[in-house]
Amino acid sequence: MSAVIPLHRADGCADAPVLRERGQREVFCGLTGIIWLHRKIQDAFFLVVGSRTCAHLLQSAAGVMIFAEPRFATAIIDERDLAGLADANDELDRVVRRLLERRPDIKMLFLVGSCPSEVIKLDLARAAQRLSGEFLPQVRILNYSGSGIETTFTQGEDACLASLVPELPAAGAQEPASLMVVGCLPDVVEDQLARHLRALGIPGLQFFPPRSSRALPAVGPNTRYLLAQPFLGETARALDARGARRLAAPFPFGVEGTTAWLQAAATAFGISSEHFEQVTLPARERATRVLARLRPRLDGRSVFFFPDSQLELPLARFLSRELGMRLTEVGTPYLHRELLRHELEWLPAGTALSEGQDVERQLDRCRALAPDIVVCGLGLANPLESEGLTTKWAIELVFTPVHGYEQAADLAELFARPLLRRAKLAAEAACS
Ligand code: SF4
Q: Does residue 50 lie within any of the structural domains?
């Protein structure tokens, strides 16, 4: 088995036409990202400045977190604020002071904008600056928007990380080359990828975001970075502006994606192909063997992606190339061609691609194609299930550890399980 995977292909979907739709959309807002961001940066607090709807969204998405000392909350903008009868800035300052007095463990506070805070034009950037003046150096106060207007739910992470980039310490041109892995990963996945990268001999390895707000990685002209998630366009732009250079690669999903992603780092740091082979071969072989066992459950089955998480293209590539699934339509909220160049090249030629959404039209296409499994948001899953289609919630693919060799089988299982459940239901129905 060769580790050398061609990163450039003449075929695939690099220049394929994309159906662009700008109609009604069914997506969650960027506040959702707080659920995984607060787990990652363990001394940060996320204060949403929003409505009861925002609070409900967070609470229902977070579920079990109500038992822990929370690290996110919603400062509710009420009718008086909306009518301009109260000074929302004074109220916000009061809430922040109370919070920080009560919680000395908080070292970084994000003021997270929402639809209501944007409607009343509450300037959270200015609020963050004002409050930073009061609380630095104990607490760093930043802001970003998690608003649902014209966004999708993974953009919250992008906006959060982009707001953090200006805070990163500067690494000068004389600093040795280093690698930054960018994107919020579960700790277990981060540890696995770190083990592979360190075994390869990659110098100055850092992860962004870090687990502690006091350990922000330095960035400068000798920083190379690898995106671990495909939805970090703003963050990538901010890092580029700080002089860092992105290593172009597919995303680390499945054996191929993970190998090519590690290979991009190895190539950039002059690691020999023999050493690369030696370090990655055992994990690659293990993951390939497990995937081979799962493949018969997915091979030849068809899948339709509604636009939701922005993971659609890498996942479609994994399902088609490593598990033999047929792609009926691959929808994505936004198609960032540069970040997804390798993924496009690896999709089978002729794949139907769409960007944005006109939900009714897309539902019609989906029904007409009658795929074996549909990947979609929560709002569409129940209606489609009731019509007899098998669905997979896109949000589960973001909440579950799915990156790297060790998770390749779990990722495949996420698609195999709903098909098995549907087959069991059909068998039970036939017997009754
Ligand atoms: S930010 Fe907007 S879309 Fe998100 S929960 Fe609040 S009101 Fe709803």
A: yes
**CATH code, domain carrying 119:** 3.40.50.1980
- Of all atoms in ligand 1, which is nearest to the CA of residue 148? 3
Q: For residue 123, how far is its CA from the centre of ligand 1 (angstroms)? A: 17
| CA distance readout (Å), 151 to 125, 157, 185, 333 | 19, 12, 21, 8
Q: How many domains does the chain have?
A: 2
Digit-coded pLDDT (tens) for 259-318:
999 999 999 999 999 999 999 999 999 999 999 999 999 999 999 999 999 999 999 999
Instruction: Tell how far the Cα of 114 is from the centroid of ligand 1, in angstroms.
Output: 6
Residue range of the domain that includes 103 = 30-151
Pairwise CA distance, residues 390 & 7, whole Å: 33
| Residues 198, 251 within the same domain | yes
CA of 99 to the centre of ligand 1 (A): 22
35 located within any domain: yes
- What three-state secondary structure class fits 390? coil
Q: Whose CA is nearest to atom 3 of ligand 1?
A: 148
- Closest residue by Cα to atom 7, ligand 1, is 115
